Give the backbone structure.
Amino acid sequence: MANERLDALLNQWQGKRLVVLGLGVSNRPLVRLLLEAGCTVVGCDRTPREKLDSEVLALEALGCHLQVGENYLQDLAADVVFRTPGMHPGNPALEALRRQGAEITSEMEVFFEVCPCRRIAVTGSDGKTTTTTLISEMLKAAGKTVWLGGNIGTPLLSQCGEMQPEDFAVVELSSFQLMDMRRSPEVAVITNLAPNHLDVHKDMEEYVEAKKNIFRFQDSQGVLIVNHDNAITDSLTGRGKTLKFSRREPTNGVWLEDGWIMRHGQPILAAADILLPGTHNIENYMAAILAVEGLAEDSAIRQVAKTFGGVEHRIELVRVKNGVRFYNDSIASSPSRTIAGLHSFPEKVLLIAGGYDKHIPYDALGPEICRHVSKLFLGGTTGSAIRSAVEACPEYAPGQPEILDCGDFASAVRAAAAAAQPGDVVLMSPASAAFDQFKNFMERGNYFKKLVMELCV
């Protein structure tokens, strides 16, 4: 099926100079789409030419002009610029292009403009990937055609031509993607908000304002779904209907009561039927249940709860060996996410933590580690900050928990595995981003799984 709105945009861009900033996974289908439409495309990336992979070189062979290496942002000229999500809209190079008259947009912004079907989008500090996936799974269980993507890993713009009006696009949106968005989905979900990504955002206020773009441009028919138990999200109100979910008390939407998830006073799902561990996943289910209200039957919701085993790198059981359970929670790039992971286990765990410094506070993590961790294995740039947060707690006593500074990630994993005894849980939940030693949290999680399999043979 042709997408007339996308075709019209591509026609407008004929004869113009289109610059795509960043040639990572999310922008490569965009470059290919533009080249196939006959557009003039310049691909810019910090990676030096000698380290470019074969897929990027294939784009060059198709006609993409490459500007790569340390000076990839110098002397740029463009009519339209596609910003990579990780680049702040206030980047000096982008500001210079704006002054020259360039239009600054992104793959996601264009997708929202031309998407032919209903859009459901999820953002938040924690839980957004699982919630996005749950919404998709519930809709699919109800027989709907679903296009899952966005920050979750699959760019959707190039697939617009295959979408039908009755389909659903379910997307995860990061604060970076939302910063300069000027369109909002029909249904917007904010799981929670806590300090995060303050290495990129100027401050917490900018971070929250970026998140608000997920509903800022809705009309009176829009639906905003927020967490009543989170002070920041509880204060948000959309232009249309605002629905809330809570583990603590009844709301105008969904809440937890006597072990049951209730929707508008009616029991929908027993919390005990949810296969995923942890109270935070009850919150994720409540948000998803509100998002699919009127779109998926309760039977579809219950089917997903009993069969869905979770998303990779999110409290993922890697292996049980000699009575020790190893869990990969590499997605936990913030203290609040690691706290949720710790609350998923009734016993104290051996925790592997530390990584890239996003300049966020670790004060709240310290007491939780004292309560839920028997031994703490630290590595990466934030290891010292996490140690300080633990030792500053009134609950802390020397050796409770035992803290080991391991230097790097692999050493921390090996030390934790060596210290584990039958019945123990080893949880890799770093409370930090992965960029000090890895490209992303997925690479970190895969390396952890590799190390675990090697250590346990």
Summary: The chain has 16 helices and 20 strands. The radius of gyration is 23 Å.
